[in-house]
Amino acid sequence: MTDSVIEKPTSIIKVASDKLFPQLIVGLLIVIAGIAMIPNIIGLGVMLIIFYFVNSSIEVIRIHPKYSEVKLAIIRPRWLILDRSVESADVDGKNLLLKVNEEDKQVIRKIPLNPFTEDDQKSIIKYYQSHAKNNAKK
């Protein structure tokens, strides 16, 4: 048996529910239209409704004391970003571009900011820019 400790995140950021709500409405409208007129599209409406619930449950960004985890979609892998590896964090339009040093290679990670609330967007940007600034001083 191992003595491993599971560390809980200090902060969890999910997709804003008001950004996903139109997807649910469209799904319901497609299901209703499918029942009334075209039964072939009922599956599409059900799929949109399922995606709404799946996307609303994803923890997109988990912030831990020494690293963060980013998972942009249910089928995409989770990125582990060490705080000490963040070299720069720049906002480019509606995306946050992170330059991260992974295994002695510089990798650019693009995090879309649209799915988050304004407050979450500001906290994400502030978090990564503060680590980039701290790492530039070293």
Description:
It is built from three helices and seven strands. It is α+β, with helices and mostly antiparallel strands. The strands form two sheets. A four-stranded antiparallel β-sheet has the order 1-2-3-4, with no helix packed on it. A three-stranded antiparallel β-sheet has the order 5-6-7. Helix 1 (17-36) runs antiparallel to helix 2. It is elongated. The N and C termini lie far apart (39 Å).
Shape: elongated
Mean pLDDT: 90
What radius of gyration results from the CA coordinates?
19 Å
- Poorly predicted residue ranges: none
Count of β-strands: 7
Number of helices: 3
Portion in beta strands: 25-35%
Category from helices, strands and their pairing: alpha+beta
Oligomeric state of the chains in view = single chain
Spatially, the strands of the biggest sheet line up as: 1-2-3-4
User: Tell me about the biggest sheet?
Assistant: 4 strands, antiparallel
Helix content: 40-55%
First-last Cα distance: 39 Å
Spell the H/E element sequence.
EHHEEEEEEH
Provide tags for this entry.
elongated, alpha+beta, single chain, 29% strand, 7 strands, 4-stranded antiparallel sheet, 138 residues, 3 helices
Topology:
Elements: E1 11-14, H1 17-36, H2 42-57, E2 59-63, E3 67-70, E4 79-82, E5 86-92, E6 95-102, E7 105-112, H3 118-137
Antiparallel strand pairs: 1-2, 2-3, 3-4, 5-6, 6-7
Helix pairs in contact: 1-2
Describe what is shown at a glance.
With 138 residues, the protein is of the alpha+beta class.
